[in-house]
Design goal:
Elements: H1 4-18, E1 23-28, H2 39-46, E2 50-57, E3 60-68, H3 75-78, E4 87-95, E5 101-105, E6 115-121, E7 126-130, E8 137-141, H4 158-165, H5 172-177, H6 187-197, H7 210-232, E9 270-274, E10 277-281
Bound molecules: zinc ion (ZN).
């Protein structure tokens, strides 16, 4: 499952490649699962729209769309002032789910199995959405008001971060994964951040001293930024969301290392399940 750094990398790769393109036409498969908005609405919103920007919001990829509306004979125009066409804004929102990917390719490139959407772009290239397991989601926000919920972990400030966990009786790991608090911090990055901050994943959020939550604040940003920096160097022409290559170059200090020695103190790393997710920690370094 692509996590925040991978989605950021993919969004940056797409922004570099297709910003400014106009969507000339859209093809959508008949599979219903990937479509969170009705197919006709998605097609209508995308066709003849210009892709003004591509960015990440939480684990969503948001395409900011602009289209020139009809020139309205305003009073200003009638008074001889310049009439500017009304610019309609909308957003196309993609969640990659478990196995979704967005590919920018030449039209002659063979269409992969499990392709659910093809956008024909003004440059002649195509943007394709492929998703074998169909947990990915496509939707449109006609008023450009998409809200990914929660707060962006790379933008939140220290006081706000601390306030998110105040009085919470849930394990800190669950709170970190709660998308209504912080958006987009996934399992791997939660484990790695908790290790760097010296906090056990099961520890109740409310019982962690302020100073240690401050450490966690810095650890979360550090881990995500390191992963983005590593992912950013692996962008290829093939915008891929499998996360197989390049993305997981961040050396995991605890995640997936059950039974292996802690890189700091050599104590074997433990694994526990919290809220259905594997959590890895060093019983000596994390309190
Ligand atoms: Zn240790």
């Amino acid at each position: 499952m692509p996590e925040l750094p991978e989605v950021e990398t993919i969004a940056r790769g797409l922004a570099k490649r297709i910003t400014g393109e106009v969507v000339e036409s859209v093809w959508l498969s008949r599979k219903k699962e990937p479509l969170k908005s009705p197919a006709a609405e998605i097609a209508k919103m995308l066709e003849h729209s210009r892709i003004a920007a591509v960015r990440r919001m939480g684990k969503h990829i948001v395409f900011d769309l602009e289209r020139n509306g009809a020139v309205r004979p305003t009073q200003e125009a009638q008074a001889g002032k310049s009439a500017r066409p009304a610019q309609d804004k909308a957003q196309w929102v993609v969640h990659l789910g478990m196995t979704g990917s967005l590919l920018v390719c030449e039209p002659q490139t063979e269409i992969e199995k499990h392709t659910h959407a093809i956008l024909h772009l003004s440059s002649g290239r195509e943007l394709r959405f492929v998703d074998p397991r169909r947990f990915g989601r496509l939707s449109v926000a006609p008023a450009a008001d998409f809200d990914a919920g929660g707060i962006e972990p790379l933008e939140v400030d220290l006081d706000h971060f601390i306030s998110l966990f105040r009085g919470r009786k849930t394990p800190i790991k669950s709170a970190l994964l709660n998308q209504k608090l912080l958006r987009g911090v996934g399992n791997i990055y939660a484990d790695e951040s908790l290790f760097r901050a010296g906090i056990r994943p099961r520890r109740r959020a409310a019982t962690i001293p302020r100073e240690r939550v401050g450490k966690l604040f810095h650890a979360v940003k550090e881990v995500l930024q390191e992963a983005i920096a590593l992912g950013g160097s692996s962008i290829s022409d093939y915008v891929d969301a499998d996360g197989e290559e390049g993305f997981f170059q961040l050396q995991h200090r605890v995640y997936g290392r059950e039974g292996e020695p802690c890189l700091v103190c050599k104590t074997p790393i433990k694994r526990v399940v919290i809220a259905g997710r594997s959590s890895h920690y060093c019983p000596k370094c994390q309190k």
